[in-house]
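Dear colleagues,

As part of the handover before I leave the project, I'm documenting each prediction I ran so the next person doesn't have to rerun anything. This entry is a single chain, and its sequence is reproduced below.
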Amino acid sequence: MRREELVLYLDELLEAGRFKDYCPNGLQVEGCAEVRTIVAGVTASQALIDAAIARGADALLVHHGWFWRGEDGRLTGFRKARMRSLLLHDINLIAYHLPLDAHPELGNNARIASRLGWVVEGRFGEQDLGFWGRLPGAVSLAALAQSIATGLGRQPFIVGDDERRVCRIAWCSGGAQGYFEQAIALGVDVYLSGEISEQTVHLARESGVAFIAAGHHATERFGVQALAENLQARFGVSCEFVDIDNPV
């Protein structure tokens, strides 16, 4: 398919234009005009670029792209190496950040709920990025943590009483621990995000609302996978998800 057709479809599907984001969404680096093979992944790291090159990809589709607000814009060091690899092999870099967190079906938060069997009842947070709802039934915090470990393939970090029964849950993938206070105000029993900081531990203890840090990478793999599957089913292009493991 044509590069322009692909990007237009993704822009419209994810409603990229309505988001105020920390980076440009959509086509970030222009490569070849015809796209037959796509490699998808979480972050446009050198390792993922190398994997795309090895597979003869025409496009690299990621959640974490480049050109973040406030970062050094000079193409030196590792930035030069990454850009050089893409340009030498005429690979398009296509990235969707907040639009891929928020999408109600293909987004990271929607896919977490689908994967773990959670019932979505509403949205919250800036630009409605966060989701809230309930578990299929009340379980202990320890049992919830184990189901998350099984579903995400990573043991989460838990702040809370393992034996406490929980049912109401809010979540937002990646680095969204800043929504914890809003989640508490919703009256949930537990909040899940990717990361945790020192002050968050105190807030969990003092509020009585458990906090689960399930990993930034681990919570943001499923949106781009779903997007790749959507493209392959709709357009017949080859789309392969490559997971460059990251323990954080």
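The mean pLDDT is 98. Residues 36 and 236 are 9 Å apart (CA to CA).

All the best with the project,
I.
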